[in-house]
Design brief:
91 residues, 66% helix, mainly alpha, globular
Length: 91
């Protein structure tokens, strides 16, 4: 079922390398943040309400939430600034 969903969405399932706490820690931290901020961060009457709340939470997480290790930039802002720096380096 998971492989079919990935093919349908045109995405590739990547696994973290075994015995790499740095990589696994990032994945585990994201899951903990997601559980606290979205899944259990609010009271939902139904699973459908929880499901409908996910896109807004992901938007906040990626586009507006200041991140401590990114000089208080949101991940999207940081990605955008890196892209601009790379483009400027090769023109």
């Amino acid at each position: 079922m998971h492989a079919l969903a990935c093919r349908t969405l045109g995405i590739r399932h990547l696994r973290t390398r075994p015995y790499r706490p740095r990589t696994n820690g990032k994945a585990e931290r994201f899951i903990r943040t997601m559980l606290g901020g979205w899944a259990y961060g609010a009271i939902y009457q139904t699973s459908t309400q929880r499901q409908h709340a996910l896109p807004a939470w992901l938007d906040y997480y990626n586009q507006r939430r200041p991140h401590g290790s990114l000089s208080r930039q949101a991940p999207h802002e940081r990605l955008h600034s890196l892209r601009n720096n790379l483009v400027g380096s090769y023109t």
